[in-house]
Amino acid sequence: MSIAIAYIKEGYTAQQKQLLIRETKKACMEGLGVTVNHSFVFIQEIPEENCDEQTKRMQSLFVYTTFGKTLEGKEKVCQGFEQACRAALGEDHGKSIVIFKEHSDENAGRAGHLRPFIPR
Q1: Residue in 72, 69, 71, 64 with CA at minimum distance from that of residue 103
Q2: Residues 72-75: contacts with CB within 8 Å, 24+ apart?
Q3: Which of 15, 16, 37, 111 is deepest in the core (most CB within 10 A)?
Q4: Within 13 Å of residue 13, how many CA atoms lie on the same side as its CB?
Q5: Please, what sign has the CA dihedral across residues 102, 22, 14, 8?
Q6: Which DSSP helix (H) or strand (E) runs through 6?
Q7: DSSP 8-state code for residue 10
Q8: CATH number of 2-114
């Protein structure tokens, strides 16, 4: 399972955001070997006044997944996110970064899938 949150500045159209979500999800599925039902992508929009000059021209992707993903798979996610940003946000979209957090606690998942904990 993977949960990916893309942080982008405000101002993109609904179509641009849906394309970014779709292409980022595809990159996570291919790179991390997860199915469509085990790959989740969200967008968090950041108001421009909450950014410094450098981060106004940057998108970041935080990927939370189970332990043991390969370097090659992570590289596919990075390349896929860059391509998704280019396709959805334009050639002049700025810098894209990806941060991976692998959960190593065996209680968090089984067979490579994160187990959701639902509050009671």
Answers
A1: 64
A2: 73/31, 73/32, 73/33, 74/31, 74/32, 74/98, 74/100, 75/31
A3: 16
A4: 6
A5: positive
A6: strand 2-9
A7: S
A8: 3.30.429.10
